[in-house]
Amino acid sequence: MKIMAGNSNLPLAGAIAAYLEVPLTNASVRRFADEEVFVEIHENVRGEDVFVLQSTSYPANDNLMELLICIDALRRASAKRITAVVPYFGYARQDRKSGSRTPISAKLVANLITEAGANRVLSVDLHAGQIQGFFDIPTDNLYGEPVMAADIQARYAGGDLMVVSPDVGGVVRARALAKRLDNAPLAIVDKRRDRPGQSEVMNIIGDVAGRTCILIDDIIDSGGTLCNAARALMDAGATRVAAYISHGVLSGGAVARVDASALDALVITDSILPTEATKASERIRILSIAPLLGEAIRRIADESSVSSLFD
Ligand code: R5P
């Protein structure tokens, strides 16, 4: 087995390689003067089972292009099997036509990865499970829940827990986490704008008074969804609110927004390389999914069960 990495998240790649006790493949992924991506693999990969690690996070297009060109280089170097390991699959939110004459970019990205030469895909907490169906190659979608549940048990056990979905679309994810937390009760934040032009009203479905609320979502981007949900939960009588989010996109002023929010803590994973601002925030903690990804890679290489990781 070989582990090769693009430049999007080298610390995570290093941690996965350390978990697997395999050195990172000697390769350079660099830029020409005009910013074209160039990849050169400095060791033999002929007949190898190669895992290419690259999150298509900011800068999404550059990182996607690096991934595609790494796969192309591996295919032309006669790798036996190429698995695109994409802990954060960017463009996933564009998974349907949101209006007339709009693209389904998640499907286009899936096509690009397949056409480049990937034989398999491994990702974490895809925005929608159905994105697996955008690929006609085997696709494993790992869940951050076990890692999050262990942290929640360690930090908040005995705190009258309630798992909260920040929107109606996230209920399945919230229910799965609640199940892992000894069937904790569930609440939902229902955002509604009754008429265009009216401001959004946050209705809480469920009695959160006196509870430690655990918000769970796949992505925090601007932080608006989460910070507004945290405020609404505190206004409804929650004792404290912590958020567990798989992918810390945290664009624009998101970190400042989180720092000024009603959140007790925001816990994200290292699927995306944290910025200096993220690392400096006292409100944000980062859990590593390197062991989870490492173990899944080991099992794929051994042709053993990946789903049993979540039993
Ligand atoms: C949306 O469907 C996602 O699950 C997240 O709720 C959303 O991307 C968060 O975005 P923001 O942080 O910008 O509110």
Topology diagram in text:
Blueprint lengths: L1 E4 L4 H11 L6 E5 L5 E5 L7 E5 L6 H17 L4 E6 L18 H12 L3 E5 L14 E4 L2 H12 L4 E5 L5 H10 L5 E7 L8 E5 L6 E9 L3 H12 L4 E9 L5 H6 L5 E5 L6 H5 L3 E4 L2 H13 L9
Parallel strand pairs: 1-4, 4-5, 5-6, 6-7, 8-9, 8-11, 11-12, 12-13, 13-14
Antiparallel strand pairs: 2-3, 9-10
Helix pairs in contact: 1-9, 2-3
Bound molecules: ribose-5-phosphate (R5P).
Describe the structure.
This protein has 311 residues and is α/β, with parallel strands linked by helices. The protein folds into 2 domains: 2-142 and 291-310, Rossmann fold (3-Layer(aba) Sandwich), CATH 3.40.50; 145-288, 3-Layer(aba) Sandwich (Rossmann fold). The chain contains 9 helices and 14 strands. It has helices spanning 10-20, 60-76, 105-116, 145-156, 171-180, 224-235, 254-259, 276-280, 290-302; strands spanning 2-5, 27-31, 37-41, 49-53, 81-86, 120-124, 139-142, 161-165, 186-192, 201-205, 212-220, 240-248, 265-269, 284-287. Strands 10-9-8-11-12-13-14 form a 7-stranded mixed sheet, with helices on both faces. Strand 5, helix 3 and strand 6 form a beta-alpha-beta unit. The longest helix has 17 residues, at 60-76. The radius of gyration is 20 Å and the shape is globular. The two termini are 26 Å apart. Ribose-5-phosphate is lined by residues 166, 169, 217-226. The site of ribose-5-phosphate (R5P) has 12 residues, from strand 11 and helix 6.
